[in-house]
Specification:
Structural class: alpha+beta
Helix content: 25-40%
Distance between the termini: 38 Å
Strand content: over 45%
InterPro entries: DUF4440, NTF2-like_dom_sf, Steroid_delta5-4_isomerase
CATH architecture: Roll
Strand order of the largest sheet: 2-1-6-5-4-3
Protein name: DUF4440 domain-containing protein
CATH topology: Nuclear Transport Factor 2, Chain: A
Shape: globular
Number of strands: 6
Number of domains: 1
């Protein structure tokens, strides 16, 4: 069974909830045990524990919101590839800063049938500042 747009929307909703609740464990649970974040600076964050630590650092830096625009979703068998644009909003002492990016996420279906993010890579596109979002 293919990874559906509805299932993808549930993943995005869970990401939003984890940000709103500042819940690193919830965020990390959306990834496979050996999942990895491939960051714009070239570093790689591997495994759920390290992903949770990275998320905690983003929250500490003021991460308050993420919006995505899915441009393409391809699914075949136990793998799905999502491509899109994202905007992450951080609240700073000077107001809000939005970091824009292009991203690709590889989702993998586990033995239990659950889809999880496996590889998550994004490139920095730009940054904007403002007084609110």
């Amino acid at each position: 069974m293919a990874f559906s747009a509805e299932e993808l929307a549930q993943v995005h909703a869970a990401v939003v909830r984890s940000i709103e609740e500042q819940n690193a464990a919830m965020f990390a649970s959306l990834y496979t045990e050996d999942g990895a974040l491939l960051l714009p600076d070239g570093s790689v964050v591997s495994g759920r524990s390290a992903i949770a630590e990275a998320f905690e650092a983003w929250i500490a830096a003021g991460f308050v919101r993420q919006e995505v625009e899915v441009l393409d979703l391809y699914s075949n068998g136990d793998l799905a590839v999502e491509e899109g644009r994202a905007a992450g909003t951080f609240q700073t002492a000077d107001g809000y800063v939005v970091h824009s990016s292009n991203y690709v996420i590889v989702h993998r279906r586990g033995i239990d049938g659950q889809w999880l993010m496996h590889r998550d890579i994004w490139t920095a596109v730009g940054e904007t500042s403002g007084s609110g979002y």
